[in-house]
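Let us work through a complete example step by step.
Step 1: write down the sequence.
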Amino acid sequence: MLKLMRFLKPYWWQVIILLFATGLQVYTVLRLPALMADIINNGIVPGDTDYIWMTGLRMIGLTVISAAGSLISSYFAARVGTSYARDIRRAIFTKILSFNLLDLKEYSTASLLTRTTNDVNQVQMVTIMLLSIMLRSPLFLIISIIMAVQTAPDMSWIIWIGAMAVVGTAIMIMSLVMPKFKLFQNLIDKITLITRENLTGLKVVRAFDNEKIEKKKFVKTNDKLTNLLIFIDKILELQNPLINIIFNGTTLLCSWIGISLLSKDFAYLGNMTAFAQYATFVMMSFLMMSLIFVMLPRANVSAHRINDVLMTKNRIRWLDKTDGVPEKIASVEFKNVDFCYPEASEKVLDNISFMAQAGETTAFIGSTGSGKSTLINLVPRFYEASAGDILVNGLSVKKYDKKDLISRIGFVPQRGMLFAGSVKSNIKFGAPNASDEQMRKAARIAQAENFIEKLPEKYNAHIAQGGTNVSGGQKQRLSIARAICKNPEIFIFDDAFSALDMKTDAKLRAALKEVTASAVVLIVAQRVSTIKDADQIVVLNNGKVVGKGKHLELLKSCKIYQEIVKSQYSDKEYAAELKKAERGNHA
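Step 2: predict the structure and record it as tokens.
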């Protein structure tokens, strides 16, 4: 919690107002028992009606001031608490956006969602209570004890007995519930994970008729969470009867001792009444403070989880400014590049070297798990190479600032990702200042114009979150249009044509030549037909380059490539391709 207190700095002046209002409220409230004692001793006992009225009016005035102080302090406590939580949520979201793919692997999506919502809410609630109760209770406690001792010193020992009983009760309850709070947050994470997993994979669950299995998993975790909450609630509910026993016992003790003292001096009646109220304030202060200390461990667990995210050191460090002058002609070069995941023993990529020139298409093909997608993810620094270097326009990617490097790249992922909004907002996602003409041109090249024009609102048509209201092929075409609209120097297509039919694929690749004439094009593909016309094909196997060249060259020289082609072509088509390769070789 202390580490998160830095988020309160912008609101220091509001905290000062809150402190002043709280002090005013405490002062006015604690004056009332003393005035009540005066009314009894100097008004009611001697029968002085004027004194009763005058003191009564003063008490009403103090009550109004106390209410105003309470209102102001509550308002600023809520305002500061909610603003504080807003800033923490913003900081978490900003931090998550700065993560690279390796950073994200440290946390599950469900855990990040819980930390941004439930954990922040826990911290917000306790912060509001700290600002409102924790500031007020110590003042009430200290001043009440002083006033009680001054009012009836003979009865002051009663307060210490009651206070020790309340503190003991709070310690007992805290020791029972504290270990359970971390388990509670972990179970919340698991509930979120199972729910999210089933919502995103609902088609697969239904396709395999596994609703009962998934329901059983959810019920098991949900029951654990329920039983844990019941246990925590049972322990916390013990607090009320125990505190009531202490309160009633303290009141009874005050009355017993007070009455015995009244037999000696009847004027002690007012003092006894005031003392009983001060004793109640002391007990209430201890109760409120104990409530905070019971809730604080739970909030502390949440704060720790939030700090874990905020204090995560990014594995990839970006420069504030590009160090060097990139060449004007686009290019991508890999120099003896290795990559392996942290703490992994085997390399995913091993000694990768190639050069991709402007105006040329470089394609990557290989079996599943050969490292194709990992390789191209190194160009925009989604991952960092373990060894070797990657040059973009002749300059190492490590010497670019983030904005400069990313502005040069148009990236289309394997799964077309769309955001809630419109067709227009999705195409212009990477180039918000692009004109509508540029947007339409990008859609036309990406073969998306036909289906967009058929939509009721065309480019203003609504796109649901994740693009769930469009088909897989339409999502891919819109994703490709988004990259084209950006007009980058380097196009990266990570198996971005897989959801397109052969005819649309061919049309799109032909239309792409118009905008990629002076750009580097990197394509990861599974289909040979998508890359057979590439200027350079890099064949990968187990993270190593096993072949490099054009389609017919590789068909003649690379066994792995031959196997890939043979698996996708009929025997007749494969034989025809081999003859072309032979003729090319003789020529």
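Step 3: interpret the result. The longest strand covers residues 331-339.
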